Amino acid sequence: MKDIVVSRGDGNLIEFSEDELYKDIVKGSENAAQKGKIDGLSKAEINHLVDIFSQPGKTVSVDPGKEVVVSDDGAGLMASWGRPSAGHAIPISDHQSILMYERVYCGDTCGLGFPDYSYKPVKSAIGYARSHYKTISMLTTIPLIYGSQPNMGMYYHPTGPIPTPFDYFTKYEFEKGFQLQEEAAQIMRDDIYYVAEQLYEVGCEAINLDTTASAGDAEFWGALQVVEDIKSRLPDMPVEMGMAGEEVIGMHGKLTYQGERLAGMYPHQQVEMAAKAGVDIFGVAVNSDTGRSTPYNLARAVTFTKAAAEQSSIPVHANSGMGVGGMPMTLLPPIGCSTRCAKALVEIGKADGL
Asked: Which of 41, 56, 327, 334 has the lowest tally of Cβ within 10 angstroms?
């Protein structure tokens, strides 16, 4: 009988028998192990994951004593923000929303950011960002982390000063395309440091580089360098770095950091580079396949996360939101999926936080 209800990566509900569930979990783990050249899940870990999906309740939780710290990229603002941001559009201010997140929902940390969630537009509105941050930080007790995306793509035409390198690739002018990516990475680096420095002056408690390497290895290269800048000049500023996906895409392909080629790196390699740069918390991001089941996607995420946690010298916070960490690619993932993904990432993936 097919009596285990799960979701597909696009959010649609499907039914599995226990045997089908087991086979999909094995396939997911094997896929991650093959791509990352890492160990797959053991038989005991696969059975544990089967048990998590087989539990009849709508929600599940970690065992007592296995609770972890949660960081976020704006969850505390969701009450006040509108539907396009998966918010609830309650007519309250950001200040009130964050206080509610801290004092009602008991958040461990809280993320604050500019509505256009990238460092380039934050730079042009830094006065607002400073006053916004300082006002809220004076009212909160939990760590208030300021986050944005490096989003190097914004530095290319038409939104930025750098010609699009891919126009040169189509003309086989590869060296010119590589040069333009490096120039964009350096401007991005300067902008992120400028924002960090300005916020540091008003007491910023931590900064988050969210969705790092979305524009490929050149963006990862620039982000690692700005972490070095922050750590050398703003020593009391903790840095969290969350990735855009499980593999660093080689848009450039030749860039290295401390002798290691960045293109093609998987989470267990990414976290090693991040730790060398000075990152304090690393966010593993494993993308979901919308055409596969949540058990398959979660098995992949857990396998990659476990390898990164075992390799890491710094805390690993697994990204667990729409389209990553085993979760379906939907604006508001079902709670049955989100709690099962969280439990598995912590208990099997050995994540230090989410």
From this structure: 56
Token couple for 323: 């389209």
Residue owning tokens 């699009």: 164
Tell me which residue of 193, 199, 195, 273 sits closest to 233, measured CA to CA. 193
Q: 48: which residues sit within 8 A by CB, 6+ positions away? A: 344, 347, 348
CA distance 39 to 32: 9
- What are the tokens at 147? 């986050």
Amino acid at 111: G
Provide DSSP, 180-210.
HHHHHHHHHHHHHHHHHHHHHTTT--EEEEE
Regions of the chain where pLDDT drops below 50: none
215 vs 155: CA distance, rounded Å: 11
**What is the C-alpha separation between 247 and 262, in angstroms, rounded?**
10
Q: Please count the other Cβ atoms lying within 10 Å of the Cβ belonging to residue 1.
A: 6
pLDDT in tens, 63-73: 899 899 999 88
Q: Which amino acid is at 240?
A: E
Among candidate residues 75, 52, 50, 71, the one with its CA nearest the CA of residue 63:
52
Q: What are the C-alpha distances in Å from 116 to residues 35, 85, 120? A: 34, 11, 9
Cα 170 → chain centroid = 31
Three-state secondary structure call for residue 41: coil
Torsion on CA atoms 284, 285, 289, 292, rounded to nearest 10:
30
